Amino acid sequence: MELNAPILIHWIDLDLLSRLGAAAVLGLLLGLDRELRGHEAGLRTHGLICFSAAAMTVSMIALYSQIGGERADVLRIFEATGAFIGIIGAGLIVFSKGEVKNLTTAAHLWLAAVIGIACGAAQWPLVLIGGFVSVVMLTLLGIVEARWKRPADKPRR
Length: 157
Description:
Elements: H1 14-36, H2 43-66, H3 75-92, E1 94-96, E2 99-101, H4 103-120, H5 124-153
Antiparallel strand pairs: 1-2
């Protein structure tokens, strides 16, 4: 059996550390909102998913380069990530007492995976925009939504 050439441990470089480190930090930040609000899939789940997606992407890009682009389909990264996140998201979403719960958390996990893939591929503009949009949608819109819903939820006297 013919194997690809090994990459030695001393070849860890700043580029690899920045890709994986950015994914880990951003994943934790993406999960912060869910954690603070007491939702399932908080800091650790988002951090692990974002980091895992980045590591998977870096590995696939390296393998693609090592084997010279033969017999490699980098789109399988997205297929595998989508299937995995779909399974986790389906497990999180609950329909109880006429309400759907954890739908935003499941969608946010998908965003964490996509941002992880972008970190692994060193697509920094996409990482910055994705992180910014995530913070705006979850944190700022969450604050606006909470203030908007309060008057309607108060009982009339």
